[in-house]
Amino acid sequence: MSATRNTADTEEPTARQQAVLDAVLSLMVEEGDQLTMTAVARRASCSKETLYKWFGDRDGLLTATVRWQAARVRAGRYDRPTLDIAALHDSLKGFAATWLTVISSPTSIALNRLAIGDAASRKSNLGRIVLENGRFAIAERLRPVLEAGREAGLLAFDDSETAFRTFFGLVGRDVQIRLLLGDSLTLGRGEIERDAARATDQFLALYGRKTAAPEA
Amino acid sequence: MSATRNTADTEEPTARQQAVLDAVLSLMVEEGDQLTMTAVARRASCSKETLYKWFGDRDGLLTATVRWQAARVRAGRYDRPTLDIAALHDSLKGFAATWLTVISSPTSIALNRLAIGDAASRKSNLGRIVLENGRFAIAERLRPVLEAGREAGLLAFDDSETAFRTFFGLVGRDVQIRLLLGDSLTLGRGEIERDAARATDQFLALYGRKTAAPEA
DNA sequence: GCCGAACCGTAACGTACGGTACGGCCAATC
DNA sequence: GATTGGCCGTACCGTACGTTACGGTTCGGC
């Protein structure tokens, strides 16, 4: 043991290692299928020996890659719970737009495909990691916003989890599954803005308190 | 090339061939990953030679399997467009429950995983077939219902496609992606009924005409 | 009863790929 | 300036799997 195994460690990869992981990501996006150790080594201009020394085995490399990309996405800012309806609307719309941007990005598509294929065999737990850093992470970040909205009398719901899942559905709709299955669905910046706004309006129509108590 | 190639033909597979395809499905569900030609032959009690004669190659076998399962699912009945709000509600709820049942079934999960993994490489078009017989097929079947609802003054929308996508999101929410990524999410009959009702109510809240002209 | 076709079971072949070993290069250390 | 350690490039090994080939068996038609 010992050595430089970054497999399951919480340690951050070195700059060189990050470059390798970026090579894995780019290869995943471009070639999709041909994610072989040899191809990674060639793309990253490193030897296979180094790959195995650093990441243990293929699974370790993939896990590290997923973690690395997750850390990059997670770098998003923390919204402060706000109180008036306009700020709530903006906050929700921001979440929606961010989420749509993420799930429609080539990197996310390739990564989710990989994790889903991995979930088919019961070897690794890439699926769990992706879920943890995607769907569940955004729920955790959105919950305080929703609950602050409820505190302020702007929203009405019993269970914040259920409310979140409705929002999730209104935002994502059929986008992710279509992209994963290879449908050529392009989301430009304009479409994302429009879809985010529509989803937010629909969510507020369902969960917003009618006639939000005029504070005057 | 004559012979019995059922690869891309529209012909229906023989009973024996159907048994083979069912073996593929069961193997896909149980073993997930180990979908090897040898395993299929063993499970179906047939020789590999026969597999190749009937389906051409591995890809042909997979394509035939997806088509076979699609034909089975497509056997659902055709709802007749109806006119009053109760019938519309029931129809929508029926669609929602059916869809939730399908996407949470082990067969659908395994099939979608396969098609998604296939979409990663650009060889075949299993993803297209699955989309065609899943997401797009249900849209085609639901559209007349939605438009009949609009004709009857029960629904209000500009674009039936947009309305459908909202309904799709309200029904599916995060269920499919979580299941595909290996999350242990079990949907019992009760949950499906409840979720279908909730999604339908929400959809009608968004797209239903307020105070649907009391006919008395 | 015989023939040929279809099919089963299994062995064999070629290739792709995960993992390992080794020789050479370069940079830091003494 | 020799030594040591980290790393690159590549050759190599074992295995898994798609695909093909072949001997044996069953069965319908003459």
Q: In percent terms, what proportion of residues of chain A is strand? A: under 5%
Number of strands of chain A: 0
Q: Oligomer, anyone?
A: homodimer
Overall outline of chain A: elongated
N→C terminal distance of chain A: 68 Å
Helix content of chain A: 55-70%
Q: Rounded to an integer, what's the Rg of chain A over CA atoms?
A: 20 Å
Total count of helical runs of at least 4 residues of chain A: 11
Order of helices and strands of chain A: HHHHHHHHHHH
Largest sheet of chain A: none
Task: Summarize this structure briefly.
The structure is a homodimer of 216-residue chains. Chain A has eleven helices and no strands.
Structural summary, described in words:
- 2 copies of one chain form a homodimer.
- Chain A has 216 residues and is mainly alpha-helical.
- The first copy, chain A, is built from 11 helices and no strands.
- Chain A is elongated and about 65 Å long.
- At the A-B interface, α6, α7, α9, α10 and α11 of A face α6, α7, α9, α10 and α11 of B.
- The structure holds a DNA duplex (30 and 30 nucleotides).
List descriptors.
mainly alpha, homodimer, disordered N terminus, DNA-binding, disordered C terminus, 11 helices
